[in-house]
UniProtKB/TrEMBL annotation:
Lineage: superkingdom: Bacteria
Annotated Gene3D superfamilies: Winged helix-like DNA-binding domain superfamily/Winged helix DNA-binding domain
Protein name: ArsR family transcriptional regulator
Taxonomic classification: Bacteria, Pseudomonadati, Bacteroidota, Cytophagia, Cytophagales
Species assigned in the record: Algoriphagus namhaensis
Length: 168
């Protein structure tokens, strides 16, 4: 979902890096970690620094970047990244190891923009490993402190409301 708000994949990676933990990094190590060109990382670092979201400090000849904790939106961005990471991790694991997942749809309060503490998701597909799904739900709760409820269906009822987060 974060990628629908932020169109640059490199910028998303930087936001995730700096706002998920108290991380810092310098240009070349970030480019290597992200498997991106130093130029694309430099452009995004400059944009985020100009916006005040990152601060750059000189350590010898190297510029080290980190999140600007005094930025007025620091806590909000950190919260968005945390939510994104939890869902993103869950979806990545579900899609890779769960079987034949055709679609993943966020439903309920979260789909309506209400953070009730429970994320409701519907998976559409066949032969989905329900035992592994239960394990992932527990791990996701431990990581993001949100209950995840997952319903598995063979096909999606288009009358239901939801946000498609995987599939077509």
């Amino acid at each position: 979902m974060l990628d629908s708000l932020v169109t640059s994949k490199t910028r998303i990676k930087l936001l995730l890096k700096f706002f998920s933990h108290a991380n810092s990094g310098y240009l070349r190590s970030l480019a290597k970690d992200f498997d991106e060109s130093t130029n694309s990382v430099r452009v995004e670092l400059n944009r985020l620094t100009e916006a005040g979201l990152l601060v750059a400090e000189d350590e010898g000849k190297t510029k080290v970047y980190k999140a600007n904790q005094s930025h007025p939106f620091f806590e909000e961005i950190k919260g968005m990244v945390s939510k994104f990471l939890g869902l993103d991790d869950l979806l990545e694991k579900v899609v890779k190891r769960m079987g034949n997942v055709e679609k993943a749809i966020i439903t309920g309060d979260y789909a309506n923009g209400i953070d009730s503490g429970t994320i409701q998701m519907t998976l559409i597909g066949k032969d989905i490993d329900l035992e592994y799904l239960d394990f992932l739900i527990q791990k996701t709760y431990e990581k993001i402190n949100r209950k995840v409820e997952v319903k598995v269906m063979l096909e999606w009822d288009n009358q239901q409301k939801g946000i498609l987060v995987y599939g077509k």
